[in-house]
Amino acid sequence: MLFSLTIYGLTAAILTVLGYVSYLNSCRNLGLNRSFFSWENCAIVGVFGTVCGLRYNVGVDYKAYLEYFLTYQRFGEFTFKSEWLFESLTKLVSFMSLGPSTWFAIIACIQIGCFYFAFKDHRYLYPFFSLIIVLGPHYLVWMNGMRQILASAIFMIAIRYILSRRLIWFLSVIICASLFHKSAIILLALYFIPNRDYFKNRTFTIALIFSSIALGSINLVSDYVNEISFIANFIGYENVSYHLSNLVNESAVKSWGPRNLLLIFTAVLLAWTSREVKDYYKSDVFLIFYNMTIASVIFGNVLMNAHNIFLRPIIYLNMTSIVTCAFTLYFLFIHGSSKYYGLLFFALLLSVVMYMPLSVVADYGKSSIDFTNYKTILFQDLSSFK
């Protein structure tokens, strides 16, 4: 447990320092603000990739990916034929006779690289990104759902083309993302949704959040099995659509422990401070991420008692919460001289960095189902994967 807390803490600290250096250098006359590929940004990508590459047993999907890679390396059997870029990357790593840890590390480097590149003009957010991704509720999802997170990170780049109304560029980026995970094709619809202030009234927004929790206590999925099965098959979850009825029956009521309460507390804080944050940035950039974040919270709460597979499409929107939290934290930080904003800053910061430590403590000692505590692939016997 202490080892895990140390690894996660050091990783977050190193990435935060490097993110701050990237921001400082972008403000100085060093020419680094002209290019994303500065030494500190490359270091961020390298450190994150190394930590992720050496990680082992992050979840059920992780082991499935490990088995897929080893099977392909030994027998040349394809699994993700429709995701051409993901298949090509796997072929390349296998052709070079590199191990699974290198494969995982390269994928993690692409994930974090695309995400940070999407905000190369907002490098003041970099220090907060590191804290939120590593110590918040995101890291395990990034490692477990690798392909979809990779597609989600590419989608972050595409959002700029929604704002600038450049359809061809947006289509190109989304198609690229879909070649890592076919479900990314559903993101095309977001281009045609007007970027308005849908959650302007913060009291109403908070009421919506709590109403969605109440609605989530009713499992609505069971009434629409056939329709959901068709959609799941279309967007790349073929292996799920054929077993949808069983997945619905396996759904269980979620408990409201400290970690789930933290997520709701974070959403409420974002809604409560949104009016001031919107006024500060005075642009569509924060607004589009805030809209997607609140939408992901509401849909996530409504589906919270359904099987986890029904939450997978919402992962694309969940990633926007990293950005919304970072924008809000930066605003509260620079206005920290006010006791009100200073208190809100520390409250939001604690809510986003306590998730991983709580998970490490809660999952410690659960043996094979402990997906949170850090275990390295270096000392694992992979001969059982065939």
Describe this structure in words.
The chain has 386 residues and is mainly α. It folds into two domains: 1-192, no CATH class; 194-353, no CATH class. 66% of the residues lie in helices and 0% in strands. It is built from 19 helices and no strands. The two termini are 31 Å apart.
- Report mean pLDDT, rounded to a whole number: 82
Largest sheet: none
Number of helical runs?
19
Number of domains: 2
Topology pattern, helix = H, strand = E:
HHHHHHHHHHHHHHHHHHH
Give the DSSP E fraction (strand runs of 2 or more residues): under 5%
How widely separated are the two ends? 31 Å
Estimate the helix proportion, in percent: 55-70%
Please summarize what this structure is.
By secondary structure, the protein is mainly α. The chain folds into 2 domains: 1-192, no CATH class; 194-353, no CATH class. It is built from 19 helices and no strands.
